[in-house]
Structures are given as C-alpha cells and as structure tokens.
Specification:
The complex is a heterodimer of chains A (352) and B (536).
Chain A (H helix, E strand, L loop, with lengths): L1 H25 L7 H18 L5 H18 L4 H22 L3 H5 L3 H7 L14 H25 L1 H4 L5 E5 L3 H11 L5 E5 L6 H10 L4 E5 L4 H5 L4 E4 L3 E2 L5 E4 L2 H10 L4 E4 L35 E2 L4 E4 L6 E4 L2 E3 L4 H8 L8
Parallel strand pairs in A: 1-2, 1-4, 2-3, 4-7, 7-10
Antiparallel strand pairs in A: 5-6, 6-9, 10-11
Helix pairs in contact in A: 1-2, 1-3, 2-4, 2-7, 3-4, 4-7, 7-9
Chain B lengths: L1 H15 L4 H33 L20 H15 L6 H25 L31 H17 L50 H11 L6 H18 L8 H19 L4 H15 L7 H34 L4 E6 L3 H12 L4 E7 L6 H11 L2 E6 L3 H4 L5 E5 L2 E2 L5 E4 L2 H10 L4 E4 L44 E3 L4 E4 L6 E4 L2 E3 L4 H11 L1
Classes of the chains: A alpha/beta (352), B alpha/beta (536).
GO molecular function (chain A): guanyl-nucleotide exchange factor activity; translation initiation factor activity
Family (chain A): Belongs to the eIF-2B alpha/beta/delta subunits family.
Main location (chain A): cytoplasm
Chain lengths: 352, 536
C-alpha cells in the first residue's frame, strides 16, 4: 500500500535523523554546524507535513510536537532542533489563522482580558479542516528554508559596518558565522585577529588557519593569555551555540572569562548569531553548563582515579556583558531579544 | 682608551721617581676624567635622549643613576678607595704595579657599569650610603631583553658579550675564541612583542659554545641549559639553583696575582650572568640574589685571606637561602594557615612551590579543606601541583582555565603564587593569574597572593606587554582528532603564535598579600621596599 510505504519511509528517515543527532553529540564538538542541523530539521518537518496522515491543523501540530520531543531528547544541547520545531508550529498557527480569515494580531496577543474571559479554549480552534492548509504550510516552510540558507550571507553583509581598518579583533574557538563575517570584512579592510584557542579541543587553531588563507593577520594565544592581551583589543566578536530568552548566551567554555575581561577594559562584545539560534530557554534550565565531555582529554595520568576532573563544554554569559547581537535581520541590543522571540515563537510552544 | 692610558703610564712612570706622588695621582685622575668626558660626549647625546624618554618617576630612596652628572662620583670614590692602600705602599710601587692598579680600577668601573645594567639599580658599597631623602632623577638603564627591536641596543649587547671574554682575564693574556654566545630569535614574532626575544627550545645556547669552555664555569653552563630547556622552572627553584651554582664557582675560584678578590670575583661573575640571561631572562628574585652576592663580595675586606673570604661568602649564600626562602616560607605558612578554615574550597593555579607548601602544612595541621587545581596550556604545570597534593592525601579537583566560570561558584578562597611584586602594587605572575583574579572578583571570592619579600622589585609596570617573556611558540601546536592544524605555522605568512610566560594583575583584584613580614595589602609593597633598603 502506497500510504504505508510512505509512512515507513518517513519513520525511517526520522529514525536516521535521531541517530545522527545522538551520534554527533559524542564526537569532539559538533560534526556538523548548527545551520546544517537547522536545515535538516526543517526539511524533515516539511516531509512530515507532506507525508504524514493528518486531518486538521491540531493533529499536525500534535504529530510535530511528538516527533519534536523525541528529537530534542536525543540531543538536548542542540537547541536549533527545538527552535525549528517551534518555528514550524508557529507557521502552522499562522496559516490556520489566515485560512480562517481572522487577523493574526488578535490571535497572537494574549491580552489579560482575553485570558480571563475565554478561559483557555484556544485548542478547539484548530479542529477545522482546510483543503489548502497543507499547501500553504509547505510553502511557508520552503520560505523558512530559503531564509535559513541566506543567514550567513546576511550576517556577513553587515561586517563592513562594524569593522574599521587597523583594528585588533579578538575571538574564541571556532564559529563559522564569525569566520564568514571576518572574511567578508577582510576583502575591503586590513585588520588583525587574535584567536583564543579553546582548550581542550583547540578549535581555535582551525579557525586561525582558515582565516590565514584569506591573508588576515592572525595570532593564536592560549586561553590563559586572554586577559593579558585584552588591553590592546578593540572589539571582541564571538559566535554562540544558543541565544537564551533573557538575552544571555550559552557559548563555548571560556566565553564568560572573555566577556568579563572585555567588560573590564570596556571593549565592546559583539555576538554574531543567526535567528535560528534564538531559544526560549532561560538560564536555570538543566544542561546550562554541563554536557561534560569525557575527561580523559584533559588528564591522561594515572592519578585520574584519585581526583575529580571537570570538562564543561558550555558557559553561560549574562546579558549585561554583551554589547550587540548581529543577526540576519540586523543588529539588536540584548534587551530586545525577548521581543524578537515573541515574534518567532508562540508562547504556548515554549514547552514542547 | 687603553692604548692612550698605557702611553700615559710610560710617561708618568718616568716622572714618578722625580715628582710628588700625590700630585701625580691628581693629574692621573684629571686625565682620566678628561678621557671619560670625551667618550661620553660622543655617545652622550643619542643615549641621553633615549634615556630621557624612558626615565621613570623619581624614587625617593634610590639615587641610582646613569646621567653624566653623577659619573664623576664613582671615579673619585674608586680612586679614593684605592688610594689608601696605594698610599701605604707608595715607596715600593714600580711601573708595572701602577699599571696593573690602574687597569684594576678601570675594570671595576666597567663592572659597576654592567652591574647597573643587570640589576637596574645601584646598591654597591662603593658608593656612600645615600639618604632616602635624595630626590635625584632616576634614569634607569633599560634591560637588554626588552630592547630587541632596537638594532643599536642589540649591537651594544653583542659588543659587551665579546668584551666579557677579556674583562676577567686582564689584557696581558690573550685568550682567543670563546665568548658568551648571542642567541638568535626564532620564528615570526607578533608585532606587539617585537621588542622581546623569542627563542626556540631546540636551539639551546650551549650549542654555540665550544668545548672546553674557558670563560664560563661548567656548573653555570649546566645551569643555563637547565633554564633554557625548562628543566628548572619556578622562581624559587631558579634562585636556589643559581645560588648553589655560585657557591660552586666561589669554591673553584682562585684569585689571580695582583688582583683583589673583592673586585676580581665580581668581574668573573659578569660573563656568567650575561650567559644566564641569554639562556633565559633573569627573574626578579634572581636579580635580587645577584645584587646581594655582589654586595657581599665587594664588602670582603681586602686583607682577608682567600680561604677565609670564600668561607664567608659560602656562609652568606647559605644564610640568604635559609632566611629569604626557607624560613620565609615557614613564616608565610604560619600566617596563611590562619586564613584557611574547615570546609574551605581552595582554588590554586599552576604550580607554586610556596602555595603547595602552605597547603601541605595546613593539611598536616588537620585542617579540612579540598583543593581545586586550575591548569592551562601549554605548560600544564598544574599536573605537577596535582601530583604533589594527591601524594599528601588532599582531595583535589582538576580543571582547565577555560572552565573557570563553571567551577568558581563552589570556591571559597583563591591562593595564588607570585613571580615578583612590583613597586606599584601589581603582581607579576604566570600568565593566566590575572584572569583568575578577574573572574574571582566577579564572583566575590577573596584572592590571596603569597610572596616572599626577596621577590619584591623596584620596577613598575601597568600591562603585560612592555616587559615579558616569550616562550617557544612551537609549544602551542597540538594534535586533536588526528589533525595538527598548526603544524606548518611557519610557512603560513600571516599566522603568529604567542606563548606568553608572565602577566601582571592589577592590585584591585588582589585582596591580601601574605609575606614573611606579615599580611599586607598590595599597595604596601613600596613601603616594604623602603624598609628593606633602610635596613641594608
């Protein structure tokens, strides 16, 4: 039966995606960048929309939520998966509302009056069947995909507005976004880059060699020298793994120290993060600092059995230390992040 | 200058039998001053400008100078110092002895000039004791190891190293060949640090020395090699090794005829010190130890027999090590243990012998605490500290410095060691220390620095750039996941690797400094220095 084939095919794809997610967490660093993960997630969701069996928007949302929960459980630190799921859920809500004919504004804003009078009956609204809903949703997901493909270019285009000549820029670890950002600026301006290798995995080395290919003057420093050289740095530009709902960051370990040093010297800290990294999590959720890597990368000696060793992967950086966020929709202050988030995700989707 | 003075001595020698000896002395002195002034005028203007640019704030207690105005002071002092023994033996003097004497005077002046270069300050006993209230402008000679980008300074250093093969021997001997080697820099230097040396561990300076080494004592050669390869590392270890090597040198020393031990030994030590600073720039503690030794040597009375003098010097060195290092660490432990309470979680960084000693003592005194050792690439000294603490039985945790924000919420105190304490209250220590102090301050964790007083130095510094040490850049290369990205960093033309050794921590990050004199705030360092100078 063709329907069953489609279903098995779909579940196979989902299973393979889940196993990939689980695997990429156990390697050193991510084997694929967040952008790729976001694209694959979105593509998979489009496929689910196209091939799964659903009658109305509510059922579709249930299916997507169920799969989404499994995906986020497979790799909790990879927040782009959850973000894309929430985006798609929001798309479904929008398309549904548009099909029904009601304006989007009233559905979105849960005014206090509405909450008191309606009493949470919004779930029933999604039971209506619309013939063109599937096509509309798939089209909107395609738009989302094109947006995802252009994020890095959109961010790099803003590089010249922020980097002047003969600057000394500091960065930490390896971020593809920052790499593209700096390479774009290097086409027109001359500046120096100081890269803090990020022990123990030393992704900074890869970043430095990649920047040197574009003839950017690069210096690699060990993590311990961050404060020592900070007084000569004009700007700090970093990437991040996740942007949290309060404007803080979850970034690679060592970033908090870098941010404190920059604050001490009043050096601006600029974060290049595309919109798909924005997550509605708040700092005190679990997996905030942890996801400890196996410690044999930092300690090889035999007394490992007698000591505790810690090797966290991520750091939390509070929003007070950040000067600017550069994303594919422009530059924003950390205090504005909550607003952007409310435009991307529906409040009911914050908990999948 | 030597030729002219030699000619003069011939002339003078003829007249010696006839003329009054005292007038003779004065004439000689005047002529010498003339020569000095002529030489100074040639070199004077360009040097003076350089020194004026680098002139530091006048320190009230230190009258050490390089300005020509004070040049006259050592000359009559030396002359007067040598005058008394000469006056006593006047009738028995012959031509040759006068010549030798004059040469000795010139050599000692040159040695005192070099001594100023090494130590940066003059505290030799040949000068009359200066009162602390003298507010003369202090123009310190900038040490050679921070003038790498100046070709004039490099040429002067090369010439000085060449001269040193002769200075200890006297011109009558003609030793060829072996001079103190000048090490060459390795690899591309980051432009911010082009004024510093960057050596490779694969090219030790001993490669350029031929065997047998006639100028440099073998224990010094061994010491230099140990320094340059990093076998002996750490401020205390380096100072103690240096003092032991000097003990060996003094043991093997024999005064050449017609020379005084107090002057000749100091001259002998100068090429050794140059060699050691070529192997690895001298630390502040080593500089202070060398100043002390030179002072003790110059204080040896001239009628002292050689064996007696050697014994006195060995005892001086032993007592220095005992007082300033061993007893000081006992005193510091006593103070520090008062600050450790039960249930503490103490964070330490790298491997400081003093901090390890404090923790071991506290553990023996039955304090209940646990230790977090923070380590950093590329030196990874924390592993050594970890080994020592675990051997004692202390509960330890190990993290890298990038995990600092993760681990700091658990910490109750931070203990740091220091390489030197500068006169403006900044703490010079292993790179990464300032970072730890910064983050600890952000989390409101008290930071205690433990430092012996012999590491206090007169220098002032506000950032980690002007005076630092660059280690071998190849140390940063590492293989991860089977890939070594920086393997061919030399071939990539815009890539530089920076391996700093020291950094300075501002005093507002440090809450307390524990020294053998007590517990002081960071800003009281110049007070301690002043008290020490008055004592000496």
């Amino acid at each position: 039966m063709p329907g069953a084939d489609k279903e098995t095919d779909l579940s196979e794809r989902i299973e393979s995606f889940l196993s990939e997610l689980k695997r990429c967490g156990s390697g050193a660093g991510s084997l694929r960048g967040s952008a790729e993960t976001a694209r694959e997630t979105t593509a998979l969701l489009r496929r689910i929309t196209a091939q799964a069996r659903w009658g109305n928007a509510g059922e579709l949302m249930e299916i997507i939520r169920k799969e989404g929960r499994r995906m986020t459980a497979a790799q909790p630190s990879e927040t782009t998966v959850g973000n894309m799921i929430r985006r798609v859920l929001k798309i479904i809500r929008e398309e549904y509302a548009r099909s029904r004919g009601s304006s989007e504004e009233t559905d979105q804003q849960e005014s206090l009056h509405k909450l008191l009078t309606s009493g949470g009956s919004s779930e029933d609204n999604f039971r209506q069947h619309f013939t063109h809903l599937k096509a509309n949703v798939i089209e909107a997901i395609n738009e989302l995909l094109t947006e995802l493909e252009g994020t890095t270019d959109n961010i790099s285009m803003q590089a010249l507005e922020h980097i002047h000549s003969n600057e000394v820029i500091m960065t930490i670890g390896r971020s593809r976004t920052v790499e593209a950002f700096l390479k774009d600026a290097a086409r027109k301006r001359k500046f120096h880059v100081i890269v803090a290798e990020c022990a123990p995995f030393c992704q900074g080395h890869e970043m430095a060699t990649s920047l040197c290919k574009e003839d950017i003057e690069t210096t690699v420093i060990p993590d311990a020298a961050i404060f020592a050289v900070m007084s000569r740095v004009n700007k700090v530009i970093i990437g991040t793994q996740t942007v949290l709902a309060n404007g803080g960051l979850r970034a690679v370990n060592g970033t908090h120290t870098l941010a404190l040093a920059a604050k001490h010297h009043s050096t601006p800290l600029i974060v290049c993060a595309p919109m798909f990294k924005l997550s509605p999590q708040v700092p005190d959720t679990p997996y905030n600092h942890t996801k400890l890597k196996s410690v044999d990368t930092i300690l090889y000696i035999h007394i490992l059995s007698k000591v505790n060793a810690h090797c966290p992967v991520f750091d939390y950086v509070p929003p007070e230390l950040i000067t600017l966020f550069i994303s594919n929709i422009g530059g924003n202050a950390p205090s504005y992040i909550y607003r952007l988030m409310s435009e991307l995700y529906h409040p009911e989707d914050h908990e999948l | 200058m030597m030729l002219i003075s030699a000619a003069m001595t011939l002339v003078v020698g003829h007249e010696l039998q006839s003329a009054e000896p005292k007038e003779e002395k004065q004439r000689l002195r005047k002529e010498k001053k003339q020569h000095k002034k002529n030489k100074k005028d040639d070199r004077g203007p360009p040097e003076k400008e350089k020194e004026k640019e680098k002139a530091s704030v006048p320190a009230p207690s230190k009258p050490a100078t390089q300005s020509p105005a004070h040049k006259a002071a050592p000359v009559p002092v030396n002359a007067s110092a040598s005058e008394s023994p000469v006056a006593a033996e006047k009738p028995a003097k012959s031509k040759a002895e006068l010549r030798a004497e004059r040469r000795a005077r010139q050599d000692s002046e040159r040695a005192s000039k070099q001594g100023k270069k090494e130590g940066g300050q003059q505290s030799t006993s040949s000068k009359p004791k200066a009162t602390p209230n003298e507010l003369q402008p202090v123009v310190k000679r900038l040490p050679d190891h921070v003038q790498v980008d100046d070709p004039v300074a490099l040429k002067k250093l090369a010439k000085k190293l060449e001269r040193q093969q002769k200075s200890g021997q006297g011109c009558s001997l003609n030793i060829t060949g072996v001079k103190v080697p000048l090490r060459s820099d390795y690899g591309y230097k980051v432009s911010l640090f082009s004024h510093l040396h960057q050596y490779s561990r694969k090219n030790p300076p001993t490669q350029q020395i031929s065997i047998p080494v006639t100028v440099i004592h073998p224990s010094i050669v061994r010491l230099g090699l140990q320094y340059s390869q990093g076998i002996i590392a750490g401020s205390n270890a380096r100072s103690v090794a240096l003092l032991h090597a000097f003990k060996q040198v003094i043991q093997d020393y024999s005064t050449p005829p017609n020379e005084e031990l107090s002057r000749d030994l100091v001259n002998k030590l100068s090429p050794y010190i140059s060699f050691l600073s070529q192997c690895r720039p001298l630390s502040a503690s080593m500089g202070n130890a060398i100043k002390y030794i030179k002072k003790e040597i110059s204080n040896i009375p001239s009628q002292c027999k050689e064996e007696e003098a050697k014994r006195i010097l060995q005892e001086c060195i032993d007592s220095y090590i005992n007082e300033k290092i061993i007893l000081a660490s006992e005193a510091i432990s006593k103070y520090a243990i008062e600050k450790i309470s039960d249930g503490d979680v103490i964070l330490v960084y790298g491997c400081s012998s003093l901090v390890n000693h404090i923790l071991c003592e506290a553990f023996e005194k039955q304090r209940k605490f646990r230790v977090i050792v923070v380590d950093s690439r590329p030196r990874l000294e924390g592993r050594e500290a970890l080994r020592r603490l675990v051997k004692k039985g202390i509960r330890c945790t190990y993290v890298l410095i990038s995990a600092l924000s993760y681990i700091l919420p658990e910490v109750s105190k931070v203990f740091l060691g220091a390489h030197a304490l500068l006169a403006n209250g900044y703490v010079m220590s292993r790179v990464g220390t300032s970072q730890i102090a910064l983050v600890a301050k952000a989390y409101n964790v008290p930071v205690l620095v433990c430092c012996e007083t012999y590491k206090f130095c007169e220098r002032v510094q506000t950032d980690s750039f002007v005076s630092n040490e660059l280690d071998d850049p190849d140390d940063l290369i590492v293989t991860r996941n089977g890939k070594t990205h920086l393997e061919n960093w030399q071939t990539v033309k815009s890539l530089g690797l920076l391996n700093l050794v020291y950094d300075v921590t501002p005093p507002d990050f440090v809450d307390l400094v524990i020294t053998d004199l007590g517990m002081i705030p960071c800003t009281s360092v110049p007070v301690v220095l002043r008290v020490k100078n008055v004592d000496q």
